Amino acid sequence: MVWEILQTENFSVISGFDGTCFQRHYINQDFENRFTFSKAHKYRLQCYYSEPGIVNDIFDVLRFWKSRKYLQSNVWLHGWLKRELQTLMQEEDVDVVVHHIHGVINSFLRRIEQTHLLKKPAEAKQDNFRTAVFDAAKPFLLARTDRFVNEVELFLASGLNIDAYDAVYMQRLGWNTPGGTTSTKPAEEPSQHVGVVPYLYIFDIDSDGAE
Fold it and tell me: How many angstroms from the chain centroid is the CA of residue 10?
């Protein structure tokens, strides 16, 4: 039997190289079948090029673990993960990867509730969680995995839906919302904190859940 090997030339443009990652745009891809970034996808990609920790003072991740907020189901996580993975993988069909990572997260949080892990210090639970998510995402996200894990924790710690989370994140960055025109001009310092204070109630430690 003779196997015929079909060779196709692929031309691509590399952009956004930051020393470890880059964006690749294939010139000869079928335009109709190509995944096109929405404004929301572009906004999230820009977040990965921004300095890490810019919203850490708003969404207190360690308090999220100490107050056991992880015991509350996050109904928006699946949708947020899908958009995040589409952005980083630059693929529309990421359902299998979303299902995998979402399953790892839910399985870990259920295991905390049902086993001796509940008695572990918050820092130990956080480290175990980060390791589990990192290992699940690494084959797909490569060099961006560590930042992705940070973003997962921030979204969970926020307790917000996707639109509210975007609004707070983009206000801190000094950008408009994904539906508007993106601006890279930093917001003035006083305006950065206006409007985000009402969301801080989500970090109140439960009277029966503090460690």
Answer: 30
